[in-house]
Write a structure and sequence with these properties.
This protein has 8 helices and no strands. With 185 residues, it is mainly alpha-helical. Helix 3 packs antiparallel against helix 4, helix 3 packs antiparallel against helix 8 and helix 4 runs antiparallel to helix 5. The longest helix has 29 residues. The N and C termini lie far apart (60 Å).
Length: 185
């Protein structure tokens, strides 16, 4: 069996995995400080961010972590729909905030923190599920392959709640509240 090559050294990926939450706080602080939304930017950015949130929610209703390899719903189109959803939410909030600097900061964090974490998770899944290598050969990492069958398994609200994805919805609402507040003040 060929050994899979990764972009990031494991010690680096392990370190940034621990920094994911602190990096999130830095992103929130930058967002609070820099955001300069207007009605037009909100009209474009908020629907984009909402689409990312919806993708995350759809994915969370298909993911039984460490019990079963998720291959249905959005997992039939892309291996990491939760991270893709996060990227879309961030893009929407950057558009709404009207600050290119936030786009640069979010891109650096995604590339420097989230991509190595994705690799760590893939290593874990390859060990946990023998069928993961075949799945990874059919389904792209982050860019969806449209046209794949979504599979027989349907979204399950119970799994969505177990995965506590409602926390992302609360974060979305908090970000939206900040944008609205900064627009009217």
């Amino acid at each position: 069996m060929n050994e899979r090559r990764y972009w990031f050294p494991k010690p680096y990926a392990d370190t940034v995995a621990r920094l994911r939450v602190p990096a999130g706080f830095i992103l929130v602080a930058a967002f609070l400080y820099l955001a300069s939304p207007g009605a037009g930017s909100l009209a474009i950015g908020v629907p984009v961010a909402f689409a990312g949130l919806a993708l995350r929610g759809w994915a969370a209703g298909h993911l039984e972590k460490n019990r079963e390899l998720a291959t249905s719903g959005p997992y039939a189109l892309v291996r990491n729909p939760l991270y893709l959803g996060t990227l879309i939410v961030a893009a929407g909030f950057v558009i709404a905030a009207r600050r290119w600097e936030l786009g640069v900061i979010f891109a650096l964090v995604f590339g420097g923190v989230y991509l190595p974490v994705i690799e760590l998770e893939e290593q874990h899944l390859r060990k946990l599920f023998p069928s993961y290598a075949d799945y990874a050969g059919r389904v792209p990492t982050l860019w969806p392959r449209l046209g794949n069958s979504l599979g027989p398994k349907r979204f399950q609200a119970r799994i969505y709640m177990i995965n506590q994805e409602y926390q992302a919805a609360l974060g979305f609402l908090a970000g939206l509240a900040v944008l609205l507040w900064k627009t009217v003040r």
